[in-house]
Specification:
Layout: E1 2-8, H1 12-27, E2 31-37, E3 53-56, E4 63-64, E5 67-68, H2 70-75, H3 79-88, E6 95-99, H4 102-111, E7 115-119, H5 132-139, H6 141-145, E8 150-153, H7 170-173, E9 184-188, H8 194-202, E10 208-213, E11 219-221, E12 224-228, H9 231-240, E13 243-247, H10 251-259, E14 262-266, H11 272-283, E15 288-289, H12 295-304, H13 316-324, H14 331-337
Parallel strand pairs: 1-2, 1-6, 2-3, 6-7, 7-8, 9-10, 9-13, 10-12, 13-14, 14-15
Antiparallel strand pairs: 4-5, 11-12
Helix pairs in contact: 3-4
């Protein structure tokens, strides 16, 4: 099949998850063209394996000090360019897949091509525990941001709904015995101000922090090693670290859970999905949640935080089958993927 695969590049989780799926689709002989949107071209890294790809402006969510800036997000929208990008896409694809990317989804609707929404966000269209804010977002934002015909969704738990386990790549599934650095904490906080996080981590002198952030080359500030974004290096540090400090996205916490890492999460304020993720992680005992990062909170988590490992089953073959047969009911097989009766 000729496939257009749209990826929302506002967060690296969408890219990481899509990397797994696209690789498998190509292995099975499909022609995949990738459309990225939501990030400036100069801010992409390690994307050669996605070729052929195009980068469009799309919609970019703007955050300031760990909080969604709605006003700046709205004034940054260029609707004229958005419409032009939609009409630039021609009817040369058999199917469109979108990981919460709106241009590809609206182009599919305009061209009459079946569009499948793949990713965590679409799990909220099911009857799962949701906050009032997430219910409102599900009713309006999720349905209009990326219009779709069907979904392949994933979550930390199934909640008795046809939701797949998280997609975990083979590099994490095929690990042998790994030496864990008990004092090493991996930090990934792309929406926080690094100049306020670094001094905070410097106060916790007994631990070494590996902080991936927007810098050009690796450097060290006392007990904090700052590293530029790198897909492979990040994975290797995630495998060897003792714990993870992050916002409450989906893909990264899911990988940390699979690897048996203890997690400290701060949801982005004003972002309903992250707030809901944090609540779910807390209820499932997968993470410690905080509203702000403080020395006492991080110190307490380092000393008392616990990991709860979850060996999510591999569902890649099932997901590919769902892409090949978008109108077929796969509920029974999805429940079996959680080792649950249908």
């Amino acid at each position: 099949m000729n496939i257009l695969y749209g990826i929302n590049a506002t967060g690296n989780g969408h890219i990481s998850r899509s990397r797994i799926t696209i690789s498998e689709l190509k292995k099975r002989g499909h022609n995949v063209t990738v459309l990225f949107s939501g990030r400036k071209p100069e801010d992409f890294f390690d994307v050669d394996e996605f070729k052929p790809y195009v980068i469009k402006k799309g919609f970019t969510f703007i955050f300031k000090k760990g909080r969604l800036d709605i006003f700046r997000t709205l004034i940054n929208v260029n609707l004229i360019q958005f419409v032009r990008d939609i009409f630039d896409i021609k009817k040369e694809y058999d199917i469109v897949l979108t990981d919460f990317e709106p241009i590809s989804a609206y182009a599919a609707r305009r061209l009459g091509i079946h569009c499948i929404g793949i990713g965590h966000q679409y799990s909220f269209l099911n009857k799962i525990p949701k906050s009032l804010r997430m219910k409102i977002a599900g009713l309006f934002f999720l349905r209009f941001y990326t219009p779709i015909n069907s979904t392949i969704s994933s979550h930390f738990h199934h909640f008795n709904q046809p939701i797949l386990p998280p997609f975990i790549e083979n590099q994490f599934r095929t690990l042998g015995k790994v030496q864990i650095n008990e004092d090493s904490i991996l930090v990934y906080l792309p929406w926080e101000q690094k100049n306020s996080i670094i001094p905070l981590l410097n106060e916790l002198k007994d631990n070494q922090f590996i902080f991936y952030c927007s810098i050009n080359k690796e450097m060290k500030v006392n007990n904090v090693i700052l590293k530029p974004f790198s897909n492979q290096n990040f994975k290797e540090d995630l495998i060897r670290c003792n714990g993870l400090i992050s916002n409450a996205g989906f893909q990264l916490p899911a990988e940390a859970i699979f690897l048996g890492k203890k997690i400290l999460c701060k949801p982005l304020i004003g972002q309903p999905e992250q707030e809901n993720n944090a609540d779910t992680l807390k209820k499932l005992n997968h993470a410690t949640i905080c509203k702000e990062f403080t020395k006492s909170d991080i110190e307490h988590w380092i000393q008392h935080g616990k990991a709860k490992k979850e060996l999510y089953n591999d569902t890649m073959d099932l997901m590919i089958d769902m892409i090949h047969n978008p109108k077929k009911d796969f509920s029974k097989k999805i429940f079996e993927a959680w080792n649950q009766p249908s």
